[in-house]
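Exercise 7b. Backbone tokens:
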């Protein structure tokens, strides 16, 4: 696993904007830290390992600033890293897994290297710092990418007239998916040559995009993303309106494969059981797709509720 290549690909998946220079600088600092690490090993220069950590600190602080710019929608130029850390944590802006990586890097590397000028780091410590800051930057940029997808699709979505209907929330949601795909396919661009694991990028941006679309098309619906259900289990989206609620799970693989379909249905069943929500839609999004939808399965799970599986046509 090459974390720098993954980080480079994640940054490349973002649309250009005010954040672009900052996130590209994060990548540069990580690359330079790696060169310091290599120099320390090849030249037996112990000071290079400490130099590497000073560079990973720059990558960490740059990541914080771009998170503040995009996720908090605030200008980071006159804010210290401590100001930004406090703001992001107090306002619960970061996902739990992102916050966990922030805490690890800050506690293990940034704070010790900043507060003790006499401290030297060895080869193992510099390697761990490079891995730690790279992991933090990757998961943070994933969240930034999801927020940017939300904003792009919301801006491109025209409000949909709300007509009197006897449709259930499930059927109305499924009926909106072709309109969503029309916007999604025109706005969100994926690099066909992206790195392994890009499926998670597609899923995260699809979640953000669908959230943005529904915010514009159905502002009367309450939409929550990545809601924690039980333990580490979470629902991609939970939609509520009037007295109805709906779980939406987004899947990347081709659910026409029986084993993937069964796994997805079992996963949705467990989320429904733990949440008490009686309806779920599993949305299989394929890239590229025609913008059309087909139903793969409708099933009722005794004592749990109803699950509908829909997929894009490729």
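Sequence design result:
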């Amino acid at each position: 696993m090459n974390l720098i290549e993954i980080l480079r690909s994640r940054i490349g998946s973002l649309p250009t904007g005010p954040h672009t220079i900052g996130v590209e600088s994060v990548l540069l600092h990580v690359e330079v830290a790696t060169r310091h690490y290599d120099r320390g090993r090849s030249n037996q220069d112990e000071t290079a390992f400490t130099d590497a950590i000073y560079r990973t600190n720059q990558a960490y602080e740059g990541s914080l600033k771009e998170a503040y710019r995009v996720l908090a929608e605030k200008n980071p130029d006159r804010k210290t890293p401590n100001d930004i850390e406090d703001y992001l944590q107090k306002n619960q802006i970061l996902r739990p897994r992102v916050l966990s990586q922030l805490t690890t890097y800050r506690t293990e590397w940034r704070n010790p290297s900043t507060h003790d000028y006499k401290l030297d780091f060895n080869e193992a410590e510099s390697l761990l710092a490079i891995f730690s800051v790279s992991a933090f930057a990757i998961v943070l940029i994933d969240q930034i990418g999801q927020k940017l997808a939300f904003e792009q699709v919301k801006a491109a979505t025209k409000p949909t007239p709300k007509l009197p209907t006897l449709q259930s929330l499930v059927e109305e949601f499924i009926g909106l998916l072709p309109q969503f795909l029309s916007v999604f396919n025109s706005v969100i661009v994926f690099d066909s040559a992206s790195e392994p694991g890009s499926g998670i990028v597609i899923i995260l941006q699809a979640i953000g995009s669908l959230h943005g679309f529904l915010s514009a098309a159905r502002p009367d619906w309450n939409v929550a993303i990545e809601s924690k259900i039980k333990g580490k289990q979470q629902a991609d989206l939970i939609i509520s309106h009037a007295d109805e609620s709906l779980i939406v799970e987004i899947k990347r693989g081709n659910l026409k494969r029986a084993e993937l379909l069964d796994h997805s249905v079992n996963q949705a069943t467990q989320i429904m059981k733990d949440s008490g929500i009686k309806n779920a839609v599993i949305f299989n999004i394929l890239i590229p797709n025609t913008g059309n939808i087909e139903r793969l399965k409708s099933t009722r799970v005794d004592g749990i509720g109803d699950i509908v599986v829909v997929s894009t046509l490729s």
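Instructor comment: The chain has two domains: 3-146, 157-312. Residues 3-146 form a domain with the Four Helix Bundle (Hemerythrin (Met), subunit A) fold (CATH 1.20.120).
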